[in-house]
Write a structure and sequence with these properties.
With 371 residues, the protein is of the alpha/beta class. It has three domains: 152 residues, 3-Layer(aba) Sandwich (Rossmann fold), CATH 3.40.50.11220; 69 residues, no CATH class; 119 residues, no CATH class. Helices cover 30% and strands 24% of the residues.
Length: 371
Amino acid sequence: MRIGIVVHGPNIIDSGYALKLINMIRDYGDVKVRLGGTMGRTAVIDASLEDTIDISKKLVPSDSLRIFHDSDVDVIFLLNYGKSDVTGQVFGYKVYNHYADKIDDDDIPVIQIERPGEADGSIIPWNNDLELAHELSRKLDLSIVRPEEVYDNHIKQDNPGVDQRIVHGVSPGENIMVNSVVIGKTDSDKLTLIARDNHIVDIIGGELKSHGLEKLGEVDLDSAIIKTGLLRHAKVTPRVISDEKPDDFKVTFLDHAGEDVYRFRDSSLVITVGDDTTLISSDILYRFDIPVIGITDGDLDKVVEDGFKVKDSIIFEVESGFDDIIGQNIKSEIFCNRRDSHDFKDIDEVKEKIVEIIKNINCNYKINYIK
């Protein structure tokens, strides 16, 4: 039997269950594994699982499922470890339905294994009640949850209007991230986002952050990737990979946290703009020993437990609201609106140029050096 496995998110990897389940499923046939989503990539690297889990492409989970479907495997597994049984099951429902919209036939069984090891963990056979799902439920001591149960318990109650989206499994005081941009904070355990003309305009159960909404811009609420709380919960020891660096000093510019940061792993230095973007991207780039120059304004929303930064990185903290303005000036003056620059010999030269740009717009700032 040919088996495709899609692993989603860092928690299933950090818990050790991803590898345990992969090895268990190998008993049933020839297995190929790929990641679905972005944040799990650092977890794969930290666990030294690159040879087991394919992280070569940045894919949403439904596209990872589709690739296995197009490869004509016999069964596809989706491994996930949500914050709760509700968030995990709703996640699976949305992923499966996005996947079903992308394929012509739905004859390959899709089985989700959710929150293994937890009392509320489950196995969800989304489109075919295979005996294999029942056998694994007995081995893992997980209950079988039917797709119709997920729909009746968590989906049907949603407002059917296309401009509203209920976010399940939230807790008060959590950051709300839409497509990797922090747009607010929860103040309840029930959260609904409301959009008009593809822009989020209101929220029930939280407080919106206008600066975040400006960064987000237009959004399709139905297909948006929405997360609350920390992107990665486990305390980890990051694994550093020494990639071969370019002969000349290559500086690249990262617009926002939603970009594929892994594309910058051949850089000598990455300039990041915004508190959250700097936190997320520097944490990832730490794995490749790449320093950053971050342009921030102190408006930080904690989205990872520890934000690692390479020694000799430099963080500029500027007046509130000026980080984006300075970022646009850096993009035009240093990069001429290109992605990278080879005009500098080291990080100090880049720093001095940024100081010049900041002074030209008459903005107060301070510099923090990472030692």
